[in-house]
Known about the structure:
The chain has helices at 2-68, 81-84; strands at residues 93-94, 108-110, 112-116, 127-129, 134-142, 146-155, 158-167, 179-180, 185-188, 203-210, 219-220, 229-230. The chain is α+β, with helices and mostly antiparallel strands. The protein folds into two domains: 1-69; 81-235, Glucose Permease (Domain IIA) (Distorted Sandwich), CATH 2.70.70.10. β6 and β7 (158-167) form a beta hairpin. The termini are far apart. Zinc ion binds at residues 88, 110, 112, 114, 205, 218.
Amino acid sequence: MRRLILGISVVAVFGVLTACTSLTVQLNVNQGVANGNAVSNFNVNTVPVNVNAVANVNVTPVTANTNTQAVAALVDPLDRRAERVTKKSFGTYITPKTSPIQPERFTGYHTGLDYETFASEAKVDVPVVAACTGKVRARQTVSGYGGVLVQQCVVAGQTVTALYGHLRLSSINVKVGAELKAGTQFAALGTGYSSETNGERKHLHFSLHKGTTINWKGYVSTKGTLVDWLDPQKYL
Length: 236
Ligand SMILES: [Zn+2]
């Protein structure tokens, strides 16, 4: 009888232990599920927040760069300006004695920008393109320049006449009154030391005179008079 009771007790204890073990396992499973949900929810909720934050950061600088980028008002009439503008800039004062060009016949303050030519261009056509968009006002031979084209444009809100000097007149392919668009090739430089350049070296004289009145002067005698012209380099 004692053995039977002991046997029943052992079975009962074992049963309780088994039940407890099962309960423990079940609790762990439930906790695992609970944890799994929590992790999933955390990830799903936070990802969209991060995406939005990155998108905002990217959009803001792009807008700022677009607003602050300087847009040149003019196109270079000849390429490689830095290598070409080496002798006479806007406002350079020269005399026959001090001029970087010898011999020199002029005296005064330079009203334009001189684009020089390279030795390799001495015997080939050097194309000239329009620096701005506007109508052709003049196409003729002028003393001091040889062939000249004058175009009327608006540069940074100011109406100007753009003068291109020392051109081969016969190469100019636009007529007075025609619209000439910025960047359009319209002429070739005149041959150096010929009537096409009025005896000057092969180069381009480019100036911007304020207003609608054409002013042919390549030099002025007083510095204050330069106020009637724009410095092209400030708009290129
Ligand atoms: Zn010049």
